[in-house]
């Protein structure tokens, strides 16, 4: 099992944008509204483990770290996801809602990426934990550089590229959570994402999409 990275922090937080409504396109991902999510026995156990961590009321970065520890043992297990939770979309990466806590404290989704599919550069509305269940995900991380002088424009500076194989877990809390994710491999990738917010209500975990110059 890969050790989860400690949360990334940054000194500058971008201004928020309005959240999209539920059941709409989610940052380039198709979201399927309607029926209640199907739950496997293993997924139900994972949700209960996450619930116990969130109930502790710890700071976001520590919550993410502990949730990552609970998520890691389940990644790659054949009985974690129902077959429909592994279905992709030829047009864009796909989000499957797996669980939304009744009080809005957290939600769990599966993201399915076909080869070449990617997100925009974005950050998040809350703490987040991701774990690769199948295939591998590529990630580029950024920090926001403020405008240099009057009339200048903020920029993004890439801080590193990571390839996350099956079983890899990452956790972070805003600010300092700007990244882009894509499937750079030749086969489907599936990852689980746990957010400290109700994405079934918000429609997305994305707080802001960054359309800014980047150094790479």
Automatic annotation (TrEMBL):
Residues 10-37 have a biased composition (Low complexity). Residues 1-37 are annotated as: Disordered. Keywords: Dioxygenase, Iron, Metal-binding, Oxidoreductase. It comes from the Bacteria. Gene3D superfamilies: Jelly Rolls (2.60.120.10). GO terms for molecular function: dioxygenase activity. Belongs to the cysteine dioxygenase family. PANTHER family: CYSTEINE DIOXYGENASE, CYSTEINE DIOXYGENASE TYPE 1. This is Cysteine dioxygenase family protein.
């Amino acid at each position: 099992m890969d050790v989860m990275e400690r949360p990334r922090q940054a000194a500058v937080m971008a201004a928020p944008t309005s959240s999209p409504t539920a059941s709409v396109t989610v940052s380039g991902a198709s979201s399927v509204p309607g029926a209640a999510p199907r739950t496997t026995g293993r997924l139900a156990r994972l949700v209960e483990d996450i619930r116990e961590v969130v109930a502790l009321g710890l700071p976001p970065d520590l919550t993410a770290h502990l949730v990552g520890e609970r998520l890691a043992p389940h990644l790659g297990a054949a009985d974690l996801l129902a077959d429909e939770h592994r279905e992709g979309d030829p047009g864009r990466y796909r989000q499957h809602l797996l669980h939304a806590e009744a009080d809005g404290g957290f939600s769990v989704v599966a993201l399915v990426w076909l080869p070449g599919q990617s997100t925009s550069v974005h950050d998040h509305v809350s703490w987040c934990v991701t774990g690769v269940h199948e295939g591998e995900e590529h990630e580029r991380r950024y920090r926001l550089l403020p405008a240099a002088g009057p009339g200048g424009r903020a920029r993004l500076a890439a801080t590193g590229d990571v390839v996350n194989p099956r079983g890899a877990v990452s956790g972070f809390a805003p600010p300092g959570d700007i990244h882009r994710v894509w499937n750079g491999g030749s086969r489907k990738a599936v990852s689980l994402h746990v957010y400290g917010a109700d994405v079934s209500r918000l429609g997305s975990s994305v707080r802001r999409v960054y359309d800014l110059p980047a150094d790479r």
